UniProtKB/TrEMBL annotation:
Domain Aminotransferase class I/classII large per the UniProt entry, residue ranges: 32-392
Gene Ontology biological process terms in this record: alpha-amino acid metabolic process
Cofactors (names): pyridoxal 5'-phosphate
A Pfam match: Aminotran_1_2
The UniProt record lists the keyword Ribonucleoprotein: no
Organism: Micrococcus cohnii
Protein name: DNA-binding transcriptional MocR family regulator
Record keywords, A-Z: Aminotransferase, DNA-binding, Pyridoxal phosphate, Transferase
InterPro entries: Aminotransferase_I/II_large, Class-I_PLP-dep_aminotransf, PyrdxlP-dep_Trfase, PyrdxlP-dep_Trfase_major, PyrdxlP-dep_Trfase_small
Domain of life the protein comes from: Bacteria
């Protein structure tokens, strides 16, 4: 056993067995109310019609649906990705600049392959997506946190961070950011800040990787224009079918500036050859043949109601010293307890009380104790959300009082 473990690379050993992995395993326990996993709600998909479409794909496309395809993705899926991006707020994406990937997680990995050397810095907003942090560690990159407030990235702090890194002689591979309804914070970066962030990155010669899985889950029905809409030349924009259709189909994409596209898709090919042909066909059909925008509008309404329920329950049951960002879209609510509280410790008590959340430590490269936590409302009924908050109340309120 120990000898076998000698075969593990430094890289594999460096990936933190994060508290979050444990949380997600624990969260499967049916006796717990899980506010941990940000799964999309799939029950309201048109499942009968979809199963017919899925069955018809092989009949309609023959062996093509089961065959190898091209590295960049099918023409039809790249066109469908452009349709989705138009609804995100990028009306004129060129399908020639799109690379289809098995989800945006794979696109993040591809960005590391294509743009980063071992030891480089990736600048991340703090907090940021745990899956991206894991990928950065895998590629032996140094994730450097830059500050946020309840509206996301703080431009002045980004400028300071990039200036400091330049003074230290560090190579910055890219800025990784989730400007719309971020995971985990739910924050929405205002348009003015988007322009500032783009200008700062331009000034420092830093590429932006903009990850936008939640942009269309806007509770007011108006997605905010992505950074890539106005600053295309310096942005690699990531989209996905995961939140608007299905994460199980594993279809996402990157919209890549022309000058970077070739290396990007060669990097992608070296990892996975191409995304599943069959899944690309199913996703294409969802966009072309179904009322997909109607589905997004419907689930967005559902998420909005759930977010409202969650906010109401927190206001009723939790000490007002707990601050949180009121979600305006997406899947998550981010709460901050008074300084000194360790939410990693609190998690164990929460599980004993019958509910589970993800402690903030998972979402930051900054070591130490963290008094933050993430609650996901996307996959939990209103009754269960309230029940979860109620179960956690004694744990939270005691931690605040301590
Ligand atoms: N980026 C962010 C910000 C996410 O929240 C997620 C999913 N949790 C992903 C990427 C990965 O999504 P996909 O299923 O497209 O790989």
């Amino acid at each position: 056993m120990s000898q076998l473990r000698d075969h593990l690379s430094q890289r594999a050993l460096g990936v933190k067995q994060s508290a979050v992995r444990d949380v997600f395993d624990i969260a499967m326990d049916p006796n717990l109310v899980s506010l941990a996993g940000g799964n999309p709600w799939l029950d309201d998909l048109p499942l009968t019609e979809l199963s017919q479409t899925a069955a018809d794909l092989v009949a309609k496309h023959g062996t093509e649906s089961l065959q190898y395809g091209t590295g960049q993705g099918t023409d039809e899926m790249r066109a469908a990705a452009c349709t989705v991006m138009a609804a995100d707020g990028i009306p004129d994406a060129d399908p020639e600049h799109v690379v289809i990937t098995p989800g945006s997680q794979a696109a993040i990995d591809t960005a590391c392959r294509a743009f980063a050397n071992p030891g480089d810095v990736v600048v991340v907003e703090d907090p940021t997506f745990v899956g991206a942090l894991t990928t950065f560690t895998t590629w032996e990159l140094d994730a450097v946190a830059t500050g946020t407030d309840d509206q996301g990235l703080v431009p002045e702090q980004l400028d300071e961070t990039l200036t400091r890194l330049k003074d230290e002689g560090r190579r910055v591979a890219f800025l990784y950011t989730i400007p719309s309804f971020a995971n985990p914070s739910g924050a929405l970066l205002p348009t003015s800040r988007r322009d500032e962030v783009a200008a700062i990155c331009q000034k420092h010669g830093v590429l932006i990787v903009e990850d936008n899985p939640y942009g269309q889950i806007a509770f007011d029905g108006n997605p905010v224009e992505p950074i890539a809409a106005r600053h295309r030349d310096n942005v690699v924009y990531l989209g996905t079918m995961s939140k608007i259709f299905s994460p199980g189909v594993r279809i996402g994409w990157a919209l890549v500036p022309a000058a970077l596209k070739r290396e990007f898709y060669l990097s992608a090919e070296s990892a996975f050859i191409h995304a599943s042909t069959y899944s690309q066909m199913l996703s294409t059909s969802f966009v072309n043949d179904f009322d997909w925008t109607g589905h997004v509008a419907h689930v967005t309404q559902l998420y909005r109601e759930r977010a409202n329920t969650l906010v109401g329950a927190i206001r009723e049951h939790w000490d007002p010293a707990v601050e949180f960002i009121d979600p305006r879209g997406g899947f998550f609510l981010w709460a901050t307890l008074p300084e000194g509280v360790d939410t990693l410790e609190m998690m164990a008590e929460g599980i004993k009380a019958g509910a589970v959340f993800v402690p903030g430590a998972a979402f930051t490269p900054v070591e130490g104790t963290h008094s933050t936590l993430r609650l996901a409302y996307s996959f939990v009924s209103a009754e269960k959300l309230t029940e979860g908050v109620r179960r956690l109340a004694p744990v939270v309120n005691e931690a605040v009082a301590r």
